[in-house]
Amino acid sequence: MQGLNIQYLHIMDFQLPYCFFFLLLLLLPFSGNGQAHSNISSGLFLTAASDNLPWTSPSGEFAFGFQQVGDAGYLLAIWFNKIPERTIVWSANRNDLVQGGSKVQLTRDGELVLNDQSGRTIWSPVFGGSGAAYAAMLDTGNFVVASQAGANLWQSFDEPTDTLLPTQNLNLGAQLIAPYLEKNYSDGRFKFILQADSNLVLYTTRYPTTTSNVAYWSAQISTGSGYRVIFNQSGYMYLADQNGNTLNSVFSNSVSMQDFYLRATLDYDGVFRQYAYPKTASSSTRWAMAWTTLPNFIPSNICVVIRGPVGSGACGFNSYCILGDDQRPRCKCPPGYTFFDPNDERKGCKKNFISQDCDHPSQEIDNFMIWDMLNKNFPFTDYEDFFSVDEDWCRQACLSDCYCAVATYNSGHCWKKRGPLSNGVTDPSIGDKALMKVRKGNRTAGSSAKKSDRSILITTGSVLLGSSIFLIVLSLLGIYVFFTRWNQQKQKMVPQLHVMPEMNLQNFTYNELETATGGFKEELGRGAFGIVYRGALANEDKPLIAVKKLEKMAGEGDTEFNTEVKVIGRTNHKNLVQLVGFCNEGENRLLVYEYMSSGSLSNYIFGYSRPSWHRRMQIAFGVARGLLYLHEECSSQIIHCDIKPQNILLDESLNARISDFGLAKLLKTDQTKTTTGIRGTKGYVAPEWFKNLPVTTKVDTYSFGILLLELVCCRKNFEINAMQEDQIVLADWACDCLKEGKLNLLVEEDEEAMEDMKRVERFVMVAIWCIQEDPSLRPGMKKVVQMLEGSVQVSVPPDPSSFISTI
């Protein structure tokens, strides 16, 4: 046994029984890597059954055996065995599940064989050399088959499926294949490979095969010759050359293996992620992405990186991809399309209407319309493009062309695209507007068959009725009476929509909103004046809504409610949440807004993952433009009075939309300031609120300055657990960093921002101008927008008063 000091055997007073004990230790078999294990002797086997025990590692942390996959069958797999979520890290038969009664055995001939219940061989690894003497499940998660001499003949670490574990390396030519879905372990649409040119690459596959299709990420090695990917015990993963030199880091963690389980997995959505799970976790704990100084998942946005000329992209054909708050892609269908399989949105979408008739395209133009979709594109499906044209021309060009499924327009450039559409994506970084062509009305793709069936019925009926003129007249009379009564009944059933004059706002009854929200069950959030619930209107499209149920409306509450309805109903801007309607019935007062699918900015920027620098910039622009509209461009000047991340919502394209005007103080067009009680939220409130000074639109400028700093640094203004005491208040820290020329400290963990330090400096200086204690020094929102855009030069701001740190 290596590591024993033989000289201890020669100590004169050592007792004979102890000498005998140590001699026995010398004869014990050990694995090739020095880790003890429980041997699985030849002849032993496991049977696929719900109550069958697996072969476990000495510590019990890993297990080898059968895992049941729903009703589909059994997977021969390795999994984490000591946590409630028995996460699979390797499998042998991912594409060929076996049924109950199947068996895996280390035969007496020295082969490891998986046979199904009929005896057919499903899987058997190829060994080099002589037959195996034993197998073992190790505490590293590696299952080995060894010779009598203890040499490994085969190991699962050499044939990974979708996961790497600490101490496991990815050798040249080895690859990971993503699962098809989270709980469908068959080969999916993505692969991760250390290829022959020594580069580490992520590919889409030519599904259902696993051959490489389009590369969408690579380690971009410029020097050296890559030999393997190393995943060490500290959580570091890097590409190393043959001499062990690091060529490129993949994940850079320092995690205690005594306290955490670690894995790196190519997930079903094509993203390679590193996960950690505390060993002392409760039953409700889930795998979380490990903390890292580098991104803990690659690529950073799967939706935008896949742009190949073939393949369906992150989502299926005729669909488009949008990144969710959890950094996972969501697949959606354009207007006029629905999912092929609602249970598998990545299969793509199908058209719900009859395509344009190419024999008579000009006669069909009036039957179609264009649906605008901002920040969307379907790259590489173009068949014609045009320069120096306007958007209306592009619309008409697509409407009059029967081949055109959608046109995209951007700055005078028009691309016409045919179906099936592929690589669809929506993201604020995309400047294109998609002009989706859909048929008007309810004529669906199945209506031709229905129309044909109806014609047959009418013809048959006519023949039957043709034998008697009396029966024809009688039938027509009966049909007339039936439809007259049916129409009258339908009119009674359809709720009458009451619209507030001049504002296009629907006046709902309380019962309608109670039904729409399912009895006010799904809470979206809470504000100063009430609770917001999710709901859906009862019309044909069933659009989602957010219903704010105002509570404790006494005294000033009535005024606030009427203010919102009358004034906010007249606002119309792309960076404001649109008011849809209201309810003012007895003591019940509710406001109905359009639903923002991506939630609040607070959840977005203060969540586990950091949004991209570009996206945060676009959000800052959106909030600034929305405030400019409220202050200067709408019919009644509005001071919001409570600008904060919780009151900035994000739509499906992650555009910023200012919400919650319940605290707004209105000014007439001939007024410039007003005095009122303190409003707003601690940390975002301007100093004049505390000094009983007149309040102007500059209070919103102040709040925007704090919000802008939070967007730049992706952290809250006040963090008691900050790394250093001088970093607790973000506004103070940002001022110090600007004064000392150390702005890089604010974004040092954000590679995108570090590469755009000129813009970081401009945004920070704008924010500090906004939070000046003297309101007269703060710029108006028009100038703020100009400074953010770079059209107005930003001078170095003076130090704000230290008062900001005590708010």
From TrEMBL:
It catalyses: L-threonyl-[protein] + ATP = O-phospho-L-threonyl-[protein] + ADP + H(+); L-seryl-[protein] + ATP = O-phospho-L-seryl-[protein] + ADP + H(+). GO terms for molecular function: ATP binding; carbohydrate binding; protein kinase activity; protein serine kinase activity; protein serine/threonine kinase activity. Its EC number is 2.7.11.1. ATP binds at K549. It is found in: Membrane. One of its GO terms (cellular component) is membrane. The chain crosses the membrane at residues 456-483. Residues 1-36 form the signal peptide. Residues 31-158 form the Bulb-type lectin domain. SMART domains: B_lectin, S_TKc. Keywords: ATP-binding, Disulfide bond, EGF-like domain, Glycoprotein, Kinase, Lectin, Membrane, Nucleotide-binding, Receptor, Serine/threonine-protein kinase, Signal, Transferase, Transmembrane, Transmembrane helix. It is a single-pass type I membrane protein. It is an enzyme of class 2 (transferase). Belongs to the protein kinase superfamily. Ser/Thr protein kinase family. This is Receptor-like serine/threonine-protein kinase. It comes from Populus trichocarpa (Western balsam poplar).
